[in-house]
Queue: 4 jobs
Job 1
Amino acid sequence: MKSRPGIDDVRLLERLGIAVPIIQAPMAGVSTPALAAAVSEAGGLGSLGLGAATAESARTMIRQTRALTAKPFNVNLFCHRPAKANAQAEAAWLAYLAMEFRSVGATPPAVLREIYQSYQTDEAMHQMLLEERPAVVSFHFGLPPARKIAELKAAGIVLLATATSLQEAQRVQAAGMDAVVAQGIEAGGHRGVFDPNELDEGIGTMALTRLLVQGTSLPVIAAGGIMDGAGIAAALALGAQAAQLGTAFVACTESAADSAYRQALLADTHRATTMTRAISGRPARGLANRMTMLGELLDAPPIPDYPIAYDAEKALSAAAKAKGNAEYAAHWAGQAAALAQPMPAQQLVAALVTELRCSIGALRDVQAKWEEHRVGAVEAVIA
Amino acid sequence: MKSRPGIDDVRLLERLGIAVPIIQAPMAGVSTPALAAAVSEAGGLGSLGLGAATAESARTMIRQTRALTAKPFNVNLFCHRPAKANAQAEAAWLAYLAMEFRSVGATPPAVLREIYQSYQTDEAMHQMLLEERPAVVSFHFGLPPARKIAELKAAGIVLLATATSLQEAQRVQAAGMDAVVAQGIEAGGHRGVFDPNELDEGIGTMALTRLLVQGTSLPVIAAGGIMDGAGIAAALALGAQAAQLGTAFVACTESAADSAYRQALLADTHRATTMTRAISGRPARGLANRMTMLGELLDAPPIPDYPIAYDAEKALSAAAKAKGNAEYAAHWAGQAAALAQPMPAQQLVAALVTELRCSIGALRDVQAKWEEHRVGAVEAVIA
């Protein structure tokens, strides 16, 4: 069997300047400067999801975070192929949703817009990053052009990118990233696939982490279905150098999740999660509701390109929310969401570290027991 | 956070009478008495997949295994709802496959049969189990009737059952099973869902293991995407008391896999896996080939019920195999199949144990490093 690069390695922690192997997932729309700063203050890596921000609002969030912590944090950008507008498809999608708008007393927008720009083409965002120089920048949905990568690296910024397959991870490595986020199918929120129209094998975190540890020379960050210290210990056992948790941080006091989102996440009778394109136009995992169901009906027209579809959903869910209806909301959640617990982020990171220590200790204890038991079993056979 | 039942616990190992926390997945059609006996001799739990066997052929395989080892092993039975025949649907499926049969110089069968009986209704199989009394019996696709469970328990047999969700695991617990196999979406072969027509959230092993450890009081056996000692260490870190590996054992000398299957599994350029109903009528994960593609085409008719569809695929793949064509074969494989390595089963179990020890040791080392690094980081902040 091949060696396990990474497992007894803290290179990544040193490179990121963090004390514990815990990364808060960026989560555009859910993360806040307060959340990112709290996680970084607690020794992990806090993150800001800036994929939906303009260069100027992104700059403000970075400065707000800096005002709260002197420690390193991560800012995440979306590198999707810019949307292909299709007026006919967008009109058909709006027509399909018209009755839903009516049911919440609203009128559908006349047209749908590409509500935010890919970092691929956003030069203002890139210049802002070079000026602000956050310690870490991470990419989702693909990789930026080589020139942007070179300029960020020259600015001393540590670069991460998401991969959902070994093929994507090999491209991440070839592009010169410092580490790869192995995003398993369990993960909540947007799936980081480079091309949403290619076949997606949907690889689980357990398999993907191991495939990337064995198949690349990059430090691996495991993501998807990890909610507690036992999950982090499992990620490290697989050879990851850190674990990235999203859903676990949604329930934190400092997140931007509204009360309906928190209630849905923490409900006693938990809704199943589902992978849907109906909300944004790209596959993303969230708690099933009327909006995700609308994407699954047989008479559903093709969903507009990302993020054009998101413009419709944001209008619909805002109108519904005004009536106390959360059935069209993007309640992103991973498959282990039922394990979420509400608490301040610093307390969560401290609990994760305690649990991680306990899990590693318990693994040693169980090994000692089965080694002893094994000797017993072997002796019984000999006797 | 709740406690982690199981993690420093070897109850399950004692109950199963095994020395190391490794179970070879049953794999009907792939497992053999030689494979099961070799795994049990090495201190794990070998398994026979008897779901496709008659009572008498199952008895023979149990006796053949007993002739090779005095140690405990597991026999697996299928508990699916008996097939609903639908002559019209079966004729349409055969008509759809007619050109494929022709392409390999064969004629489709005139009709399709229910090629094996569910343990739900197989009284002869049940009586054979009560007579032969294997140490462990495991169930897939659901649970047998209460009377059969009571009689097996009265015979002193340890009982296991597969669950793919917390809801199924709660039914496994309520039925009085001794442990639950948490089968994640990564797993190769047939998915153990109780009802293939219900919505399947497709939960990954990382999330599912944790949900079942937290949500049931049963010992949990993690399965899906586990190929090496690092994966077993991760399963134990999640609170599982053992790991079940299937694909890793397909490549063993003692398995019944034919040379085309071995070649496909060990190929340098690895095919993706896919979840298909086209082979057997129930969802199962295998290497993508022409047969799995046929199930995905838009003009594909509804696939006959399990195991009726399997009758067609077995005829087609046998005819193709005679011409050296493996494009219709059931090459079951999990999502981490690329990590498979060919070797005798006893050698594989020994390697897994060595790797497991290394992984636990490496986790301790990495913890020591980040604790030290953490003190350093904290001191740097104080200074």
Job 2
Amino acid sequence: MSRLARLQAQLEEPLLVSSLVNVRYLTGLASSNAVLLVEPDGARLFTDFRYAERAREIPDVALVETRRDIYAVLPELLEGRIAFEPTVLTYERWSLLAAGGIELVPRRGVVEAMRAVKDAGELNTIRRAAAIANEAFARLAEEPFVGHRERDLAWRMQSLLHELGGEKESFDVIVASGPTGESPHSVPGDRTVEPGETVIVDAGCRVGGYCSDCTRTFVTGELPAGLQRAYEVVKQAQETGLAAVRAGADSKAVDGAARAVVEEAGLGDAFGHGLGHGVGLEIHEAPWLNAEWPSVLTAGNVVTVEPGVYLHGLGGVRIEDLVIVTDDGPEVLTPFTKEPVTVG
Amino acid sequence: MSRLARLQAQLEEPLLVSSLVNVRYLTGLASSNAVLLVEPDGARLFTDFRYAERAREIPDVALVETRRDIYAVLPELLEGRIAFEPTVLTYERWSLLAAGGIELVPRRGVVEAMRAVKDAGELNTIRRAAAIANEAFARLAEEPFVGHRERDLAWRMQSLLHELGGEKESFDVIVASGPTGESPHSVPGDRTVEPGETVIVDAGCRVGGYCSDCTRTFVTGELPAGLQRAYEVVKQAQETGLAAVRAGADSKAVDGAARAVVEEAGLGDAFGHGLGHGVGLEIHEAPWLNAEWPSVLTAGNVVTVEPGVYLHGLGGVRIEDLVIVTDDGPEVLTPFTKEPVTVG
């Protein structure tokens, strides 16, 4: 059954799909300007002339070519009770549609829930994207770090991802060395990597629109005791989290399993983010592995498992794998070693 | 007067700034998760622990550290009549705030209008970003095109932008060769450039967060008559559009001046987009040069002037400069030649 048909089967009213990623997922059309109305017995795709030719070829979807400002013309084209995506539609667009007499019903995360469970083709695409990232980490590990700027190492990683066949990076490569690693989301800067510190490298690429995501923490010689211990704790937490991943597992419990290791080591306060997130057409998507997201993992979910410890003034350690959730546990797509790799 | 103070001077009620770009413009904080409430006599910045340390250092702004989901806690922290950004705030966030008893007033484009007029520091930053792009075009013009794939040429351009000091590309580099150039927004693919066609290259980079944007159409040997003529028409239209740019000019009239040249040549239908757009912290921002946007250009606006002609089955031609609007006309930031450059 096609994605569209599966969506139609669960709709109570027509759904106006505003998320461009959701439009792509349902129709295959990658576009910067499109809206899809999924109705019980069909679908209408609204887009402008730039995408009209490609849109015309989509099976089971009727093209409605509009001017650039699609939402300005939608009130004339739609009527009745229509569901919409409340986390995507802006207030302005919502009020335009509402003023046009459409009865709007918020329906949250419908397509996102479908996207969270990947089909065989999507899994193969993500396997390829992850294999490229994994190989890029292996190659980067052979190269010199000390004396190089974070931003140059980030560019080198980006170049490796490109050379190995990635379409583009799935997010800006993170290289956080020494004390800059105390923040989980630092931007690679002019700092030069020095001996005796950790270097967090977080990177991934896209293949066919699908993302990969991997983090390793490299070591430039003998570490201060605090970071050495942090590395051991994070590695153990990561392996514990991985071991808890399987179809049927509670996502909060998976987060909790890894977090308990960090907390027992007295470092709970230094692990200030969730354990992981889903990965697909977006680098962050459902399901989420954290203390708040209530869900049960399903075979076909693709998630990261990435505990981290960030020590003020000292640096950080994060280890992240990308895995497919199966009935038997995780299929790890990023097998590059998690032992501390000393780089030059 | 600081940006915050200028904004405060024009507010009727506190403004909740949800656009992360607007937050960056007003506070200097580049973040993936922040909300700024600008009040008559102060400002409160809501963000999570990842950005708290940097946020604490911002002058005239009080930090309120929250958990990740800022909008979930805002109803407890805000009250009374508050303006918001209706083109940015999602329906879900709007309804969360509204349910919390806040009286919400849509105020559209307030900060965007400030951002449209750049100050001296911003102009210098954009000049640097444009100089890098300009030099990258000059270098790319020396390299072989024929026999190379679009995607490899795009990567080469991206690498040049990086080597020359760009922080990152300001959008995915466009390389559209031969018939793929019939669409103004094609994605570089596996097609190999052949002799006797046009190759549209559209690229820019960021410096200090600010974008540059430039397009040139290269030629790989003798063109079919239709494309040759299209090149001449686009070049003339581009120069006519440029000549109309000055402080006080009506943005529709600038678009109209260039468009008239294309229309008089009988190619009006082949020029299906606006003449240009503002450029700054975003690659597309106010003001817009098209037939619909009603505005008068102001000294300090930074806009593109980029007519194009797209011929089905044959290819496309687009020429784009980035310019600063001054009282005396345009300051062109991308002086690389607009004559047809034949590449190997």
Job 3
Amino acid sequence: MTNLPEPHRRTGRRPGSPNTRARILECARARFARTSYDKVSVRAVADDAGVDAALVHHYFGTKKELFVASIELPVDPAQILTPIREAPIDGMGAILAGLVLPVWESPGKHAVVALFRSAMAGDDVDLVRNFFLEVVLREIAPRVDEPTGTGSLRTQLVVSQMLGLLTTRHVLELDPLDRVPVDGLIDVIAPTLQRYLTGPLPDSVLRSAKD
Amino acid sequence: MTNLPEPHRRTGRRPGSPNTRARILECARARFARTSYDKVSVRAVADDAGVDAALVHHYFGTKKELFVASIELPVDPAQILTPIREAPIDGMGAILAGLVLPVWESPGKHAVVALFRSAMAGDDVDLVRNFFLEVVLREIAPRVDEPTGTGSLRTQLVVSQMLGLLTTRHVLELDPLDRVPVDGLIDVIAPTLQRYLTGPLPDSVLRSAKD
């Protein structure tokens, strides 16, 4: 740890070459996206980036802190949330698909796939659950709460189709689904999302949604 | 390992109390369903079942072999594949949803969730991919291959909605989605599956599906 810039734990700042930091982060994202959290070592990330493990610790702290840094959302949430707030209800399925699906294509894909795999492995289920409940639902559910009380369920059905697409296209990489152009995929998925957001729901579902 | 019945490695048989075996298997399923593969120890499963770890090894061999035993499909595949083979194309969405979704409810849920989580963690991606490509697609794709060449993509879209539901309902356990009665959920999902199986596909998707 000699000859390093002053550690961020003391100062809260993270000095050093922006290129080196960015390279470490990119290597971390790639590792966390293709391996379970437990199997990723800071040393392996450092090797990928061509730096010493001490430098990785210096920039990012613990492995957990490196992970959190690597899963930062690849877009500013406002870029997605603002159009959704302004979207007409009748067109929200297409708008949602058009905003979210392209984020999963490179280079944002690594970060999202890393977080999702980690959550499925059991380490960050709460992180992902909270993301959906606190961020996604809070924005969308009130807009599609018709009849009253169904907004959360409608939004969760949308999430189910979105996550299923993430799974089959970007984790399982089923062929030919992983080769479909994203614009085509948006066209295929949009009517599903729209039906969940504003379509009729069976009585048994209405009852449980409102419980 | 003294005083145990003869080990299955020598004989291929697995003697012993059926109740003990079943209890070990049930405990293993539960462990593998809520933790990543790496974090499950044979000792912990043995503790849960109230037996010695040596007995678990005796019955099932290695941890991997125990895992494979624990992820056995909770239903005879013929129970699902035979009705699908005989289903009219126009009603296949509802029939598929009606056959698959109930399997995920207890007690079959543990086995399916365990396998899915393990795959998402990276340990069994190939196992799950092969299951879908070799078993599911082989049965369904030829029946919905209209226009020619689209059967695989149509089936994978169905898989995407199914896996997304598994994720949100049984892994993330989003509320209220995890409280909806399964019959209601079948009604909600069936039209989505039917549209993927037999509905129109945009030109850009048709091109890539047939490549």
Job 4
Amino acid sequence: MLKSLPIGVFDSGLGGLTVAREIMRNLPMEKIVYFGDTARVPYGSKSGQTIKRYSRQIVRFLKTQEIKAIVVACNTATALAMDEIREEAGGLPVIGVVEPGARAACEASKSGRIGVIATRATIGSHVYSEAIQGIRSDASVIGKACPLLVPLVEEGWIHDKITDEILLRYLDELLEHDIDALILGCTHYPLLRSEIRRLIGDGIRLVNPAYETASELKRLLKEQGLDNDKLRDAGEPYPYRFYVSDEAERFAGFANSVLPVDVKNARIVPIEEF
Amino acid sequence: MLKSLPIGVFDSGLGGLTVAREIMRNLPMEKIVYFGDTARVPYGSKSGQTIKRYSRQIVRFLKTQEIKAIVVACNTATALAMDEIREEAGGLPVIGVVEPGARAACEASKSGRIGVIATRATIGSHVYSEAIQGIRSDASVIGKACPLLVPLVEEGWIHDKITDEILLRYLDELLEHDIDALILGCTHYPLLRSEIRRLIGDGIRLVNPAYETASELKRLLKEQGLDNDKLRDAGEPYPYRFYVSDEAERFAGFANSVLPVDVKNARIVPIEEF
């Protein structure tokens, strides 16, 4: 039955697990098939053309997995390849992380001065500015590409003086513009949330699109009658499946540090063939 | 005529330009076809299996370009895919960056305590230790993976307090082992050469495999009668061709900051199809 099918979630690599985490918390009845493109990560420094091609391949793979909806848990892919993803997805509902994040930021901001930190590709696409100004034409959006944050998180230097310094350098420019809301526009950044909070103080609302995306997914599944309302039996198989294009073991290790569940293994998919 | 054919040089992205630069300086009569895999960069955090597959595709592409030899200007590919590269190359001479770097380090070191900084994949492969101990069995090799250095160079933070701090953290461990030679085992690292020199002082010899590889190439071409001895005529076309798998413009910009010649353009190759 359609309702009991899993949700396909994909990202350029590990970061999208922060979105999967929010879906697991907020929609505990739903099954997930996750794909992380660890052989070609990162997307954030690459061109739109390449990101579109990679995203199409991933959607084609996910469609072999009998899913009921797709969550694009990658800001860069959402920013640059949403049309192509919808086209490949056929009739399947597709949610990206940008719209829910933009909407939440518009609600969170009083002054309308909203900051966005993200990858070079996402900032270059101006997708957050456009989405925000579509909702709130008085808003001014200040974007800042932060290419070092993903490698810092992947190096594990999270509670670290050096990371604080790098964050401060990136954030200084935004703080000068007197923003009152800041979008964490890359799925790795929520892992730096408490450091960012400490550095910018309590006056600025932090918006985590991962959280907002899970809420939006919940709403959409309900609206379309696709939400799973049947409790799992004790004997049913593990509801989360993980696929990657490379380094399955490293992925499982990282996933276990991010997710509230145990990731037993991840399987490798030859994604170029899709 | 065979002697006048170009040399194929490849890397996971931009870093191999430091090798191309040494070839241009040391072998000014030689033509070069460079390929940088900018759509899938970096290799240093990926698995051997993936690096082998990508390297094979690149060699198949280079062979369509009528070349006389191949230089693997990527430490990670040299460390993990040399057998596959030689197999794909058929009879063409192939030089990697590891052997020349290891040989120079053995000559540079008095104590036999040699440090290597490189990507996670290169360090994990132990290829430098093996090469060094094959030449000098009394040597002890201390490796350190430095995954943040490539993103720092690509962010342009070269003369920067933060980069100094990160370098010091990575190098501290090596300095404790009282090394007297240090191999810059990733092609981006020569761009941090003067910072590293300043931080570690004059007592440690820095080994740049890019430089050693160009010397080795010169020797090999001469030995096999493949060295180009015909001066170019004024009317001859530009001797350097650049290909990438993505972001041709960004590549050309970076290339112009590294190379002693003008890079007019770089062309995109659909490398997955090879």
